[in-house]
Design goal:
By secondary structure, this protein is an all-alpha fold. Helices cover about 75% and strands about 5% of the residues. The strands form 2 sheets. The chain has a two-stranded antiparallel sheet with strand order 1-2. Helix 2 packs across helix 21. The longest helix has 30 residues. It is globular, with a radius of gyration of 21 Å. The relative contact order is 0.23.
Length: about 450
């Protein structure tokens, strides 16, 4: 009989096969064409809008608060553990495809943010409701309500068993254990295996902290996110930049490895080539892992970010679309690229004895000019903040069931956690991508009209 892990891998391979990868990439390319390369032409404007809140808008939180809530749900373990997992399975080339998917994903994220504002509704209590459920039904029509329900079902699964809880709390538990009890010296036998007491304590602390924040709703989540997200992002970027500066002479070679690996060539990927079945197989492994983990990290196309974007205090669909777009830029093109370069420079991705956060930890320990314990501690703190705010960013709907999932998460294996997350990410993306394509004409027209008027007023 096949093990549970083997069954999960087969399902994951089917969901994240060539058709879905092609669908997501082509959707990003199609939307990039329809909005006329907006992610290049208006990135500067987007970054300006990101930190400047609109006055007089309707909503529950500021545009910056909505972005931080969305970023809190995207800047998480995907930036540290997800990149490491992608490179370990697909080689350095996975980072190339992660960046390519993110570039086109910026147009996808813009479209999601735009539609979130255009089709949001306000309930009887004055709460703003929006996201794919609403732009599918209100934009595509009542006859498509079944598609909205499918999205909602897989969205719950992703929140409870994917991005939202299992991977994040599992990442925190792994990082804390690697620092405090790497040899599992203080063990307790649970669920058929030895688990460190550090995992139990970390799990309980995060569960309690999550419960204390989420009962305050979206406003409290946004308030916490506005403080924690910028702090954790800056802290991580500072150390990542320092690492790259200390190893600046190795960056050109790392870039060569990344580009060669993207197409199945280069040193160090013979093992991947052997498993995947030649050069083409190695290229597909790099593409599959890069796109899947990239989407896991920035969530472009999944439909999760527009749920937070809908709560923004704004009447301007284009403005919020641009603000949403910056999330993918910051998350993947900046932070994931830094992590990936660090891992390629150190060569830790090729060590078969390392998994998940241990790969990135090894890269930081070998690349930073500090004692290993300092580098390990910094990464643990960053990962804990990243993952905790991701948990907060996903709790708007589920609340107490969600807290239970956070409690369970530390005790699952890393492989099972990431495979389950991949599966539900892919399934959730399908109905959302269909809606983005169907409503792209509305987005393209109103975006063109907006910038014509913007240019006219600027003259």
């Amino acid at each position: 009989f096949k093990t549970f892990g083997e069954i999960l891998k087969q399902i994951d391979g089917f969901v994240w096969g060539v058709p879905l990868i092609v669908l997501i990439i082509l959707t990003g390319i199609y939307l990039t064409i329809r909005v006329r390369g907006l992610q290049v032409r208006h990135l500067g404007k987007a970054l300006k809008f990101m930190v400047k809140n609109e006055e007089g808008g309707e909503g529950e939180v500021t545009s910056f608060g909505a972005l931080c809530t969305a970023l809190s749900a995207t800047i998480g373990t995907g930036n540290i553990v997800g990149v490491a997992t992608a490179l370990a399975a697909g080689g350095p080339g996975a980072l190339f495809w992660m960046i390519v998917a993110a570039f086109f994903g910026m147009a996808t994220k813009y479209t999601e943010g735009f539609l979130a504002i255009k089709y949001r509704t306000i309930d009887e209590e004055g709460h703003v409701l929006g996201g794919p459920f609403y732009y599918i039904e209100n934009g595509m029509g009542k006859k498509w309500k079944w598609l909205a329900k499918i999205f909602a079902f897989f969205g719950v699964c992703v929140g409870l068993m994917g991005i939202g809880t299992f991977t994040q709390i599992n990442g925190i538990a792994s990082a804390v254990t690697n620092f405090f009890d790497p040899n599992t010296s203080w063990a307790i036998h649970l669920f058929g295996r030895d688990i460190s007491w550090v995992v139990v304590i970390a799990g309980l602390i995060v569960t309690v902290c999550t419960a204390l924040v989420i009962i305050g709703g979206i406003k409290r989540i946004a308030n916490v996110s506005q403080v924690v997200v910028p702090f954790m992002a800056v802290l991580y970027v500072v150390f990542a930049v320092l690492l790259l500066l200390c190893n600046v002479t190795k960056i050109p070679d790392a870039i060569v490895q990344i580009v060669q690996g993207a197409f199945g060539y280069g040193d160090g990927i013979q093992g991947i080539r052997a498993v995947a079945g030649g050069v083409l197989g190695a290229m597909m492994a790099a593409m599959q892992n890069g796109v899947a983990k990239g989407i896991f990290s920035n969530e472009a196309g999944l439909g999760s970010a527009p749920i937070a974007a809908a709560a923004a205090k704004t009447k301007d669909t284009v403005r919020q679309g641009l603000v949403s777009m910056t999330g993918t830029f910051i998350d993947t093109i900046v932070i994931c690229t830094m992590t990936g370069l660090a891992i390629v420079i150190s060569g830790s991705w090729a060590n078969p004895d390392l998994k998940g956060v241990a790969i990135t930890t090894e890269a930081f320990q070998s690349g930073l000019p500090f004692p290993s314990v300092v580098s390990s501690f910094v990464l643990m703190i960053c990962l804990a903040f990243f993952a905790f705010t991701t948990i907060l960013g996903w709790v708007k709907v589920y609340r107490w069931i969600y807290v239970l999932a956070v409690f369970i998460g530390p005790y699952l294996t890393v492989a099972a956690v990431w495979t389950i997350a991949d599966i539900f990410n892919g399934l959730m993306a399908i109905p959302n991508v269909i809606a983005l394509i169907a409503l792209s004409g509305v987005v393209a027209k109103e975006t063109r009209d907006y910038f014509k008027e913007f240019d006219r007023l600027s003259k």
